[in-house]
Design brief:
The protein is of the alpha/beta class and about 325 residues long. Helices cover about 40% and strands about 15% of the residues. It folds into two domains: about 220 residues, Rossmann fold (3-Layer(aba) Sandwich), CATH 3.40.50; about 80 residues, Rossmann fold, CATH 3.40.50.
């Protein structure tokens, strides 16, 4: 099967820009840093989930589904974009969120409600419990004559990851047009879908680019297991003979801090540095930690001064407003 054979709806503004970050590169001393602006995909303030939702909702529409269910944290970018995409296609959306419900809705949670999603908040950190709630909800909807379509956390399955195989090809095409060799791609990795697609795309093209995931919450072993599982499913879905090797997956969990959703000092510093050198906003949950990871790898000389490094900006800026107290301290 080819990517073009997969059902799809058009939601994102593509291709997204690949921008050189000269002032950030100079500030950090090395290497040359480029930013892939998937925060500019256009749907509901943008972000990487728009690409995945094109394929996921393409499948949902092909199956005649009328309600979309997904899961995430209270400040989930994926939930916000799923709610918007569902409404754009005339579908209902239910988002099942875990975490503490704030006194006043801000950031992504506020947007979920503006888009008219049904919001259910569950007090659990256990994904099995969360998905159990989703499964019960889907069964009830089917008994009521509805046709639900369930999307896992972050769109992290083979269908969603297929979008990032295409995204890897998009990046390499842009790099080729610019006469640029991409040595490494650094991004925040949690649910695994983005890394799975980028890893598969760079391996199939034999580009030589390393795909480096910076965990925003789970332990390295958890992220690697997720990525391996999705890549295996993706390879089977696309009838690829190639298979991944666990030792070839690069994930760092050194920049998580206390827990998922809790920004570290390095994360907050990274947000301010990128804002003040390039006028680009990162977020305190994912991309701030991802950039902190990139800066850490430079400081440890794991990325060389003669390399071209692409930071994949996965979006998430609406969450900035839910972390105002932490961000205004600096």
């Amino acid at each position: 099967m080819q990517l073009g054979d997969l059902p799809r709806v058009r939601l994102a503004h593509l291709p997204t820009p690949l921008e050189f970050a000269p002032r950030l590169s100079e500030y950090l001393g090395a290497p040359k840093i480029w930013i892939k602006r998937d925060d500019l995909t256009g749907l509901a303030f943008g972000g990487n989930k728009a690409r995945k939702l094109e394929f996921l909702l393409g499948q949902a529409r092909g199956e005649g589904c009328d309600v979309i269910i997904t899961v995430g944290a209270v400040q989930s970018n994926h939930a916000r974009m799923t709610a918007a995409a569902a409404r754009k296609l005339g579908l209902e959306a239910i988002v099942v969120l875990n975490g503490d419900l704030p006194d006043h809705a801000q950031g992504n949670l506020l947007l979920d409600r503006i888009f008219g999603a049904e919001v259910r908040v569950i007090q659990t950190d256990d994904d099995y419990v969360l998905m159990g709630v989703v499964d019960d909800l889907a069964r009830q909807l089917r008994r009521d004559g509805r046709k639900p379509y369930v999307i896992p956390r972050g769109g992290g399955n083979a269908v969603g990851a297929a979008a990032y195989v295409e995204a890897a090809l998009e990046l390499l095409s842009q790099a080729n047009a610019a006469g640029l060799r991409v040595d490494a791609i650094v991004h925040a990795s949690t649910s695994g879908g983005t890394q799975s697609g980028l890893y598969t795309g760079t391996k199939l093209t034999q580009s030589g680019a390393q795909v480096i995931g910076i965990s925003a919450g789970p332990r390295r072993e958890v992220v690697v297991t997720r990525v391996l599982g999705i890549v295996e499913e993706l390879a089977a879905m696309l009838s690829l003979e190639w298979r991944p090797h666990p030792d070839d997956l690069i994930v760092y969990d050194d920049y998580v801090g206390e827990r998922y959703g809790m920004p570290t000092k390095e994360c907050l510093d990274a947000i301010r540095i990128v804002a003040r050198t390039e006028g680009i906003l990162l977020d305190p949950v994912y991309t701030g930690k991802g950039m902190a990871g990139l800066m850490g790898l430079i400081a440890q000389e794991r990325l060389r001064s003669d390399q071209n490094v692409v930071f994949w900006h996965t979006g998430g800026q609406p969450a900035v407003f839910a972390y105002a107290a932490a961000l205004q301290e600096g």
